[in-house]
């Protein structure tokens, strides 16, 4: 295959002929006098050649490695299509051999009890990811924490589901993703008390240092659930920033504080929302909102 390069590029020898590239030999030469400028041009196309019209993916790279897979994504995969390298169907004898190899390949991947544990835990983690709508970075962090816990022998005698749920909660806290114990308890169908116990165990045994939850991160979530306007959200954010500067937010539940700030913003902007509406959206009681509301009112002279 011969193709002409940019017509503006002229031969450095004769100055008249245009440069031509031969894709088969890799030569770049003048079309008029035949002067060879370069004899090795890098191949820009794919490095494989297709002999069939099936159009299957010829990518040689598999899925990226991930801590949230029991084998970290480094396992062997035998192609389920019963065809050889040239695309021809396998013979009956070879087909049964390959089928047997596939069976042993899948069995060998979960041979160790640790692998079985990981497979069970990470399938649960995958389910929680979809239910709680958290990002991949949170899932990777949760998988890392769980692997450390298994390494330390913390899983023995405890529920795998409770421990993976607590690892996910720890990852949410670490990445400042606003998910409460109640949310994770409802998604995993495990008592909040059990998750909290496992979470405290992880903190103690793995020496995890968790950042304090920022109430501002909870505002958009509560506001979207309660159907509040953008103006109210901005006002609530300003109220919380002022409260943080005056050090009145220390030691308070971030969800309750964010809900109270939103309620104050609703009252200020004249938005018609009751304490119950905001409390239900935040997952706290009306009493909590009233108490936090009083504190904000006194501190900010509202």
Compact summary:
The protein has 302 residues and is mainly α. The chain contains 11 helices and 4 strands; from the N terminus they run ββββααααααααααα. Strands 1-2-3-4 form a 4-stranded antiparallel beta sheet, with no helix packed on it.
Describe the structure.
With 302 residues, this protein is mainly α. It folds into three domains: 36 residues, no CATH class; 94 residues, Cyclin A, domain 1; 86 residues, Orthogonal Bundle (Cyclin A, domain 1). It has a four-stranded antiparallel β-sheet, with no helix packed on it. The protein contains eleven helices and four strands; from the N terminus they run ββββααααααααααα. The model has no long low-confidence stretch (mean pLDDT 82). This is Transcription initiation factor IIB. Keywords: Initiation factor, Metal-binding, Protein biosynthesis, Repeat, Transcription, Transcription regulation, Zinc, Zinc-finger.
